Amino acid sequence: MARKKRLVEQPALPTNEPKEKVAYQDAFQSNVNRRLEESSKAFEGKGKTILYAIAAIAVLAVLIGIFMSYNRRSNAAAQTALGKAIETSQAQVTDQPLPAGSTMKSFKTEKERAEASIAEFQAVADKFGGDVGEKAKYFIAVNRLSVDRPAAVTELEGLAKGSGEVGTLSKFALAQAKTSDGKLDEAVTIYQDLAKMSDPIIAKDTINFNLAQILEKQGKKAEAADLYYNIAKTAAEAKDADGKAIPLSLTAREAKDKLTALDPEKAKTIPEPTPEAPSGLNFGQ
Q1: CB neighbours of 43 closer than 8 A, spacing ≥ 6?
Q2: Which of 48, 146, 173, 204 gets the highest tally of CB atoms within 10 A of its CB?
């Protein structure tokens, strides 16, 4: 399915569907990168199968936000078709019957949901093409990760050669897949390319944190520590519009913890953000 959110708030997506069926909200968009971090951390170390799912689900959430931000560039019919396919890809997986009268979709397995999603996204790509078609192809690839991994990786490699948000997000998903496959050098190269971008869509803290984790696995502890330090220090020194300290993001806290384990003395040089009392009085005074 972050602290960095450049997407511009847009009017609600035009749709012919009943309002209760689709509930895209700007609040969701503003939390996309945070959810990406949290899902990655929650499943860390739990095996390749879950990591493969993260590559699909976490990045899928990011593109949903981007889809909403840029939806005015596509015609209403294409928007509606892509939106319905997205609903399918987000449908509940359960072997329990849904409540009586529910119009929501559900699937018994992740595989069934992925296959149904791929079919719907393929129909969108075939019918509309263009910008919406490219987004549909991306969704096809990330959903295919749990169905036919080799084919999905090949598709992501092709999409990653493109420009724009789809190309960028394809690179991120590809880097995750390479990491899960143990192809760490390839993953490092992709993450480094993403980190150099002026607007990589995904928060640079997330990109650099993932890169640092790989470098740490490769035994390049000094390089990893530098990345963790930069993430944590920048976050610790950040201020809001009123000059008040901003609470550390999940990624920044994790980075500081990682740095503490690698280089405790260096970690001590990072100041702790001072919380503000409700009255505006500084607890540190």
Answers
A1: 50, 51, 53, 54
A2: 173
